[in-house]
């Protein structure tokens, strides 16, 4: 009988795999709803927003069904009139009575589905007239900036709060971004700041990429041990979401991530906003320039550059930085 | 060992009631090692002394015991010197640094003839950089050696021309403990810290109308979190840095005031520092030097690879601290290491200095002048007390800015914080920026990463590797970044490396606390969507009102309100305002 109280016996019960499974995790999804990009995508005939939203809802539900303490959150970004916004769990909404009667469906799922669809259709219904105002007047839509960084920042704030509360500090978190816009809409510094914050908090950022590919999101996934997948077959989106993009943070050290190894690490020029591979860097503020400014002053920090050096750089740009280095 | 006899004899020899009290108390302390409340109160009643004074006596005594055990000093010195100590409150004494500064005060105040004779002998034997020659003057015998060890702190302070040797000068200004650099001993009310009224937390916590203390407790908690507030003026900073980390490995680092001892705590902190330093300053370079046995030893060469330094630091963990430190030797080595550094990089030295003296081969003042000439900035983290030579070193190499360059560790967390302060790049001073005729523009390449199925040789180490980075200029493959391309000499870095330093340059504006009122416009924190507490009236009690908060922190650019947790997180880690970023309108 004493053998039952033996340590070896007790140890077998604390199965490490069980421990892994029991840890709850939270998933924050950021959905890019840039109207112009969606329009382009729909016209190409590959996929539309409705299909993506329904796939995302399936993903959220399946995440919730894995563990009773799992949590989900959904943010939208790049809306022209609303910017970045939290869709679910919406702070103001109460459980609507029509979601209470749910024959044949788990009530939590019904509630999530209903509130997400309600919120998104609410945002989209307001979109057309504001869109006309914004885009119709100005074809380059100069008045609108990308808000993906804002949505990621909000998600990070939310996760930070969850991690600080005592009972949930063991919670694993990850962020998934469904992106369709290209890099020109991303504010570079904000995105980078968000990436580093996520990296420090050990939160993976997974990227599900539709439309044109994005260098910065590739870098985000790379820096945070996340998955970057370019969706080649949009019709099978739900399969991507529930397999490759469904890896729990606890499993990441074990699993070979289905991500792209070759990554474009180019940076964006501060003046022209072009993506470049060789550039000049101001030694004071580290801003990246593709061209030497005419006034020989840094456009961001206004430091004056060494005139001699500038003329050298201009005359023989390839050989002379080398000479400069060997001299000193 | 201490005994009752020693104390009774000392108290009888030196006059005055306080000393008798001391000796009674101390004799008692030797009998009962553990501190009990009754003991305190008994003594309090018996002697009519304020409790904090008793406390300070006890702490002085314990320091004295510790030092004298290891040095076999004459105990009487301590007892006599204590009698002239100012009565510091227990609050100000709770830290190592102030302990040691008290001990120093004991020295400087000491009227014992032997002590004076000793310090004068030091002065006569070495007018310039006393300690070295003093060490050679009093050579053998353990007592002499110990005298030399303790006396050195005194003689450095006294001999330095900047500081008058008169005892009434030293206790006020020489023993800063780094926290409030202007006049650290001054408390909030302008008087000395120990004269401040003690604020009891139970006076502040009071029930509101509904009988709940929840709001005031949360206010107290918030006031603790508010400490992150930093200076957010965007400075020009020297982002591309070259730093030499100088670690003290002399035998004072065996002291056990940090557990297990100073040396291992220092090395542990240094390892964390190296990681954090390269995390925040990815294009910077570092080197590690230790001071041991009177010489400076190079632990790791100047390089930009954090792993080399961390391995080297792990290697010196097993090394036992030994001998005397030599600040001059270390600084000369730093000069040599920083000689080739390009003009667009900063040259910095961070010294962790545990000892109170330095044993130098030549004139350290000359070395300091050379450092100033070569624009090398030196920061010092002292472990014991402020030392005049370090003070001078920091003042001269930082354009007189002693406030940010010289600190003495107060407690273990403070040690870590001081290390982390050095991670932030230094601001470019006005004097410096006026001197230079222009800043450098560096040409850099941003390579792309490739992954091959077949391993190929990299051009930097000639090793066969699968993946790698392709230089955009000459298309050669390198395996680690940041580096200089071995073929075309182009500086290769990741753009993410540069981006990591941006928040130093474009700091986020601080949020403003919303004043307490009965109604607020916002109900939820914009970041985490936590519900805010409802509005409340300002309390009539000023103590309470100070801790009442609206719990809302307002970003003036986007007009969103945040809770304290999000505010701290946003300014500490994220460096992005979610409200401003979530707004799609361009400014």
Secondary structure blueprint with pairings:
The complex is a heterodimer of chains A (328) and B (587).
Chain A: H1 2-5, H2 7-13, H3 16-22, E1 25-32, H4 35-43, H5 49-66, E2 71-79, E3 83-88, H6 97-100, H7 107-137, H8 148-164, E4 172-179, H9 188-200, E5 204-209, H10 215-223, E6 228-230, H11 237-242, E7 267-268, E8 275-276, E9 278-282, E10 288-289, H12 307-315, H13 320-327
Parallel strand pairs in A: 1-2, 1-4, 4-5, 5-6
Antiparallel strand pairs in A: 2-3, 7-8, 9-10
Chain B: H1 4-13, H2 17-31, H3 37-47, H4 51-71, H5 75-82, H6 90-93, H7 96-109, H8 113-125, H9 130-137, H10 142-159, H11 170-173, H12 201-204, H13 214-225, E1 241-248, H14 262-280, E2 285-292, E3 295-303, H15 306-315, H16 327-337, E4 346-353, H17 364-373, E5 376-382, H18 388-397, E6 406-408, H19 412-421, H20 430-435, E7 441-445, E8 448-457, E9 464-470, E10 477-478, E11 483-484, E12 491-492, H21 495-499, H22 502-505, E13 512-513, H23 542-547, E14 553-554, E15 561-562, H24 564-574, H25 578-582
Parallel strand pairs in B: 1-2, 1-4, 4-5, 5-6, 7-12
Antiparallel strand pairs in B: 2-3, 8-9, 9-10, 11-12, 13-14, 14-15
Helix pairs in contact in B: 1-2, 1-5, 2-4, 4-5, 4-7, 5-7, 8-10, 9-10, 14-15, 14-19, 16-17
What does this structure look like?
Chain A is α/β, with parallel strands linked by helices and 328 residues long. Chain A has two domains: 16-251, von Willebrand factor, type A domain (Rossmann fold, 3-Layer(aba) Sandwich), CATH 3.40.50.410; 267-327, no CATH class. Chain A contains 13 helices and ten strands. Chain A has helices at residues 2-5, 7-13, 16-22, 35-43, 49-66, 97-100, 107-137, 148-164, 188-200, 215-223, 237-242, 307-315, 320-327, and strands spanning 25-32, 71-79, 83-88, 172-179, 204-209, 228-230, 267-268, 275-276, 278-282, 288-289. In chain A, helix 9 (188-200) links the parallel strand 4 and strand 5 (204-209). In chain A, helix 8 runs parallel beside helix 9. In chain A, 39% of the residues are buried. The model of chain A is unreliable at 5-15 (pLDDT under 50). Chain B has helices at 4-13, 17-31, 37-47, 51-71, 75-82, 90-93, 96-109, 113-125, 130-137, 142-159, 170-173, 201-204, 214-225, 262-280, 306-315, 327-337, 364-373, 388-397, 412-421, 430-435, 495-499, 502-505, 542-547, 564-574, 578-582, and strands spanning 241-248, 285-292, 295-303, 346-353, 376-382, 406-408, 441-445, 448-457, 464-470, 477-478, 483-484, 491-492, 512-513, 553-554, 561-562. In chain B, 42% of the residues lie in helices and 13% in strands. Chain B is built from 25 helices and 15 strands. In chain B, a hairpin with a 6-residue loop joins strand 9 and strand 10 (477-478). Chain B has 587 residues and is an alpha/beta fold. Mean pLDDT of chain B is 68; it is low at 1-40 and 60-184. Chain B has four domains: 4-173, no CATH class; 204-229 and 508-587, Zinc/RING finger domain, C3HC4 (zinc finger) (Herpes Virus-1, 2-Layer Sandwich), CATH 3.30.40.10; 241-428, von Willebrand factor, type A domain (Rossmann fold), CATH 3.40.50; 447-492, no CATH class. Chains A and B meet through strand 2, strand 3, helix 8, helix 9 and strand 7 of A and strand 7, strand 8, helix 21, helix 22 and helix 24 of B.
